[in-house]
Amino acid sequence: MTSTPNCLILASTSPYRRMMLERLGIPFKVEASHIDETPQSGESPAELSLRLAAAKAKAVADKFPGSIVIGSDQVATLGREPIGKAGSFEAAFAQLKQLSGQVVQFHSALAVTDGKETLIEDVLTACHFRALSDEEIRHYLNYDEPFDTAGSAKAESLGISLMESMRSDDPTAIIGLPLIELSRMLRHFGLNPTLTAQK
Questions:
Q1: Residue 82: count of CB within 10 angstroms of its CB
Q2: 43-69 burial string, b = 16+ CB within 10 Å, else e?
Q3: Per annotation, catalytic residue among 36, 62, 73, 170
Q4: Residues 57/69, Cβ–Cβ less than 8 Å
């Protein structure tokens, strides 16, 4: 299977990442990577997110030679413990109770490859959750339904109101695709979003 030279592919079916990449105005395709995301023994959350981002990019690049492929993965941690996607209202409620008043680190790993060279980076976001009441948690979960989001909070929506503060070098990283770092990587491969964006 081949593709046109410099075709841009997002190795993810995440609607959030697709929405973020659309901001750069570059035509792209979406292709699922279908990789095994099981953590390896002794692997830290940061190591896991970097490995998975690179593996996703490579898996798709192998199928579409000549393309530039973006892989991304996000892992949230409280201390060294990973925080997954809740999947249900009850689990999300328990998760936000645990995170209330705590600082959560979001590792937004990014990998871009042309099939020959791969750039990888982990962009950190520190989210300080404010002290949350049970009433606030219930209302928020009913409003945003963030059950497919690590940490049970959608920062691009009402979830931002759960925060005391957020710190990152890239404000888009928390949503799962760090656009500042991605733009730098794309320029490295000769694809400058500032010059190639199309309406």
A1: 16
A2: eebbbbbbbbbbbbbbbbbeebeebbb
A3: 73
A4: yes
pTM of the model: 0.88
Residue given tokens 């395709």 in the structure block: 29
Q: Given 3-state DSSP classes, what are the helix, strand and coil percentages for the chain, each rounded to the nearest 5?
A: 35, 25, 40
- What does the buried/exposed string (b/e) look like for 164-189 if buried means 16 or more CB atoms within 10 Å of the residue's CB? eebebebebbbbbbbbebbbebbeee
Closest CA to 24 of 68, 90, 58, 59: 68
Based on the residue annotation, tell me whether 62 is a catalytic residue of this protein.
no
**Rounded to whole angstroms, how far apart are CA atoms 30 and 89?**
30
- For the chain, which ranges sit under pLDDT 70? 1-6
Q: If residue 18 lies in a helix (H) or strand (E), which one and from where to where?
A: helix 15-22
Quickly tell me which residue has 């928020």 as its tokens: 140
Three-state DSSP at 191 gives coil
Condensed to tens digits (0 to 9), the pLDDT of residues 58-82 reads 999 999 999 999 999 999 999 888 8
DSSP track, 99-156: HTT-EEEEEEEEEEE-SS-EEEEEEEEEEEEPP--HHHHHHHHHHH--TTSBTS--TT
